[in-house]
Design brief:
- There is one protein chain.
- The protein is an alpha+beta fold.
- Among the domains are: 77 residues, no CATH class; 90 residues, Chitinase A, domain 3, CATH 3.10.50.
- 50% of the residues lie in helices and 13% in strands.
- A four-stranded antiparallel beta sheet has the order 3-2-5-4.
- The longest helix is centred in the C-terminal third of the chain and has 26 residues.
- The two termini are 55 Å apart.
């Protein structure tokens, strides 16, 4: 008997029996998979939405069969705890709950409410300082200075400059736009220039430029009525975010938050 107990096969049998018994006692019963008429109709409607066609009886049976297979795999994954500690599933569930929190329809705000929203965020609806100018492009600062002297002596600016992919003129461009086009720091070189005469050279990421500054357009607030539709969209987004935050705060109040000390 002692020699039998020492056999590995004996212990494999004992351990297997214990595990089987434990699984029978403690495992969660598998749930019933119920296919309702409403589910069949929903699958058919989804098929029609995706394909533009009404599902035939055979196609609908296939859709139901696919759903059953997916549901079985889903329920088994839950039973095995595969949803636990999964960051992708966690983010997806959070996204869905945020969507539910934001999905309640909001009535259109009254004009006074929208006006107050606009007034409290004027900086978001203010056009920055913008520049309108012509430019001539040169590879070297020497070429640009030669052209500037030529213009001062009566030469035609339209006949000067070297070819490039840049436009000959720009209108109503903000510093952000100009720095994105010409390279960082270009727009700042326009500050302090006089309008109406060729000046430079100004350096960009491409080379050097002579600039004829036509106008400097001061910052101005966009009128309320001109952007009312945009304000409605912005206010709607603000309301969604606010609703989501209030929902989250209410949920947090229902939990005891314990932060373990380090």
């Amino acid at each position: 008997m002692r020699s039998f107990i020492k056999q590995p096969l004996f212990w494999f049998f004992i351990i297997g029996t214990v595990l089987f018994a434990a699984d029978s006692l403690f495992s969660v019963d598998r749930s019933e998979i119920y296919v309702s008429v409403a589910l069949r109709e929903r699958l058919g409607l989804l098929w029609q939405t995706q394909t533009g066609l009404t599902a035939s009886s055979e196609e609908l049976d296939s859709l139901v069969n696919n759903w059953i297979q997916e549901e079985v795999l889903y329920q088994e994954a839950l039973r095995l705890g595969l949803d636990q500690e999964d960051s992708i599933i966690r983010r997806r569930l959070v996204q869905k709950l945020n969507f539910i929190a934001e999905s309640e329809p909001m009535p259109e705000p009254e004009t006074a409410t929208l006006q107050e929203f606009y007034n409290s965020r004027l900086e978001n609806y203010t056009l920055p300082v913008r520049y309108s100018f012509r430019q001539l492009y040169f590879l070297t600062p020497g070429d640009a200075n030669d052209a500037l002297r030529n213009i001062a002596e009566g030469g035609k600016a339209s006949e000067l400059g070297q070819s490039s992919m840049l436009s000959a003129s720009y209108a109503y461009r903000s510093e952000l736009d100009l720095n994105a086009t010409f390279g960082s720091g270009f727009a700042q070189q326009l500050q302090g220039l006089e309008t109406g005469s060729w000046q430079g050279p100004l350096q960009s990421g491409f080379g050097f430029h002579l600039v004829l500054l036509a106008n400097i357009h001061a910052a101005e607030v966009t009128p309320f009525m001109a952007i009312r539709e945009q304000l409605l969209m912005d206010y709607g987004q603000y309301q969604k975010e606010n609703t989501r935050q209030l929902y989250l705060e209410d949920l947090i109040n229902e939990y005891d938050i314990v932060v373990e000390a380090r």
